[in-house]
């Protein structure tokens, strides 16, 4: 049996620990932070008892049956549908862009077919595949809706013009010609009844899996293990010696209120006159619970520097070139595999992280069985 180190106790690390631990390997998990679950960490607020998503809202959603079946072994998921609202120009609308948003914004009563025809008429199609976020938006929704809902929010969220950002970021959001206001297209959606932290703790709960919190794992320690799975930032592994990959980080400013503050879990602020991007009210992520008081967080985005917590990989051309350097070096590491949002520097959701960790564990088992290096 192998002696394995896992760097990071988020979903990637915890799923790998579960899979490799269950296969009988001796697993040690290291996390620099004092808690498990990475940026999915949740904790009950001592004052209000509301379950807080410490690093911002996380709504679990997937269409991957394997992931949905898998994760439910480690906790109970309560039904939750994310129905986001957005404020622009002093009015409240429904997101993602759907027929209600379109009709209210334009003062129309379009049917699905009429709305489709309208947008086909106003869409600003370039000469080929949209090259950036703005071109993608203009091709889909035309200039008026783009400027109202996306242009300024994106400026605040990413700190740069949407023309500089990849089209893939906009493709995370659907645009619908019906009244479905579910933020996600996924088949399954829910929030863990006891929080994400409990799920990660359950994943890590095996006798041959040990956990070292508040402990950084250095590259030099890898020699002491048969295999290392690193879900920490790939550039940090190499001491940032070729430069830092860009990330956005978030600041959350807490406010406590009585009763109900905004009547919804998430409201986006799409105007530049408001400095925050969104306000989340965490008790609305657990509608099955009763709380007299409420806690909200105003969310501000900025460039990640120094010891700030990385959230969103920026992935511009410069970053992709730097990433390619680190990936080349990663391939030459004898016994280290990089996984997860930070280890692979991709904007991926929890369900993708879990699916990939399951694949990596399976691949490792197959390699061992075949007697070849993973
Ligand atoms: N976005 C926007 N306005 C909104 C919501 C989203 O412009 O009201 C853009 C923004 O660029 C954001 C991207 O769409 O980064 C993806 O949004 P998503 O809600 O998936 O972001 P996340 O919840 O991961 O922060």
Automatic annotation (TrEMBL):
Gene: glf
GO CC annotations on file: cytosol
Enzyme class: isomerase
GO molecular function, one term: UDP-galactopyranose mutase activity
Source organism, top-level taxon: Bacteria
SUPFAM superfamilies registered for this protein in UniProt: FAD-linked reductases, C-terminal domain (SSF54373), Nucleotide-binding domain (SSF51971)
Keyword tags: FAD, Flavoprotein, Isomerase, Plasmid
EC number: 5.4.99.9
Listed name of the protein: UDP-galactopyranose mutase
Family: Belongs to the UDP-galactopyranose/dTDP-fucopyranose mutase family.
Pfam families reported in the protein's UniProt record: GLF (PF03275), NAD_binding_8 (PF13450)
Keyword hit for Ligase: no
Residue stretches making up the UDP-galactopyranose mutase C-terminal domain: 148-347
Needed co-factor(s): FAD
UniProt xrefs under InterPro entries: UDP-GALP_mutase (IPR004379), UDP-GalPyranose_mutase_C (IPR015899)
